[in-house]
C-alpha cells in the first residue's frame, strides 16, 4: 500500500476502506472484521484516524492494512497470557500480522475478547 495514497484518500465506511486494498490484504482484513463483528455485534463500526474502529463504551479495537502486514490496536502485549504476541512485530500497544502468513485467528479472537472485557469495565467504573 502506498502511504501517499493513504494520506490522500478519505474513507467514510469500513467497506470503502477494505475495498481500497489489493486482494491478498482485503481477504485478511475481511477475516478480522468478521471476527470482530461476531464478538462485538453491539459495537458501532466507524472510521477513526482513517482506519476501521469499533466502539461500545469507548473505542474497543482498531485494525489497519499496510503493504506487508495488518495491524491490530491496541494489543495487550504486557498482559499475562498474551506472551504469543512476542512472535509478532509491533509496538507496545500494536501487533503486526504479516500478509505472507496465515492470520492467527485464535489469537485475534483472544485479543478481541480481552478488549471487550476491558471495555465493559468502563461502565462499572
Task: Give the assembly state of these chains.
Answer: single chain
> Could you tell me the mean pLDDT?
91
Strand order of the largest sheet: 1-2-3-4-5
By DSSP (H or I, 4+ residues per run), the number of helices equals 4
Morphology call: globular
From N to C, what is the helix and strand string? HHHEEEEEH
- Count of extended strands: 5
Strand content: 15-25%
Q: Report the C-alpha radius of gyration, rounded.
A: 14 Å
Termini, distance in Å?
Answer: 40 Å
Low-confidence stretches: 1-6
> Helical proportion?
25-40%
- Structural class from helices and strands? alpha+beta
In this structure, how is the largest beta sheet organized? 5 strands, antiparallel
What does this structure look like?
By secondary structure, the protein is of the alpha+beta class. Helix content is 39%, strand content 21%. The chain contains four helices and five strands; from the N terminus they run H-H-H-E-E-E-E-E-H. The protein has helices spanning 3-8, 14-19, 23-39, 105-124; strands spanning 44-48, 51-55, 59-65, 69-73, 95-98. The protein has a five-stranded antiparallel β-sheet with strand order 1-2-3-4-5. Strand 2 (51-55) and strand 3 form a beta hairpin. Helix 3 packs across helix 4.
Amino acid at each position: 500500500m502506498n502511504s501517499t495514497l493513504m494520506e490522500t484518500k478519505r474513507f467514510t465506511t469500513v467497506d470503502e476502506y477494505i475495498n481500497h486494498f489489493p486482494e491478498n490484504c482485503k481477504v485478511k482484513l475481511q477475516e478480522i472484521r468478521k471476527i470482530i463483528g461476531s464478538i462485538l455485534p453491539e459495537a458501532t463500526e466507524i472510521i477513526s484516524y482513517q482506519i476501521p474502529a469499533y466502539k461500545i463504551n469507548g473505542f474497543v479495537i482498531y485494525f489497519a492494512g499496510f503493504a506487508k502486514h495488518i495491524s491490530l490496536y491496541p494489543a495487550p502485549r504486557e498482559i499475562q497470557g498474551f506472551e504469543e504476541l512476542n512472535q509478532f512485530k509491533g509496538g507496545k500497544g500494536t501487533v503486526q500480522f504479516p500478509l505472507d502468513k496465515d492470520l492467527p485467528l485464535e489469537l485475534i479472537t483472544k485479543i478481541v475478547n480481552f478488549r471487550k472485557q476491558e471495555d465493559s469495565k468502563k461502565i462499572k467504573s
